[in-house]
Specification:
177 residues, mainly alpha, Lysozyme, 9 helices
Length: 177
């Protein structure tokens, strides 16, 4: 009995010591070369980008949502095409969004644009998920504040959960990396 107790204590100590390493299995930093490159170019925290990718596709470059969002950062074709045109980037429907580098670049550019419009991550994330039209309406109607201080009032349950998930992921990424 004593040997089992000692072995159990040793296992618990090892798990506690290695918690960060264990968490890093779930909070990946795959596609680092693209995330780091384009995050620096467009002034977006790479840890926030990883948080978005984790929530959107869990790093599955072939992900396709039931609404038609594609790739790592789950971009809609129309949105991605518009961002590509504005960044003078070639865009091929059905192909570009499944290319990890192009998807990450387009996603970061799109997010950076939203961040420059709304000035706070919480509201920019809501727009990334629900669209600028909805977010602008919520702000105009006083449902949410432009400063993001009452982001819990987002009326779309999916978007409300989405923003909270990203922000939670972001806190974990900041602690781990």
């Amino acid at each position: 009995m004593r040997k089992i107790l000692i072995a159990l204590i040793i296992i618990i100590v090892i798990v506690i010591i290695n918690t960060n390493n264990i968490l890093k299995i779930f909070y990946k930093t795959e596609y680092k070369e693209y995330v780091e490159k384009y995050s620096a170019e467009y002034d977006v925290d790479p840890l926030l980008v990883y948080s978005i990718i984790k929530a959107e596709s869990n790093f599955n470059e072939g992900a396709l949502s039931n609404k038609g969002a594609c790739g790592l950062m789950q971009l809609m074709d129309e949105t991605a095409r518009e961002v590509a045109e504005n960044t003078i980037m070639d865009y091929e429907p059905g192909v570009t969004l499944y290319n990890p580098e192009k998807n990450i670049r387009l996603g970061i550019v799109y997010y950076a644009n939203l961040r420059s419009i709304y000035n706070v991550d919480e509201v920019a994330l809501a727009a990334y998920n629900a669209g600028s039209g909805n977010v602008n309406k919520w702000i105009e109607q006083g449902i949410i504040k432009a400063d993001g201080s009452d982001i819990e009032n987002i009326p779309f349950k999916e978007t409300n959960t989405y923003v909270r998930k990203i922000l939670n992921n972001y806190k974990i990424y900041k602690k781990l990396y």
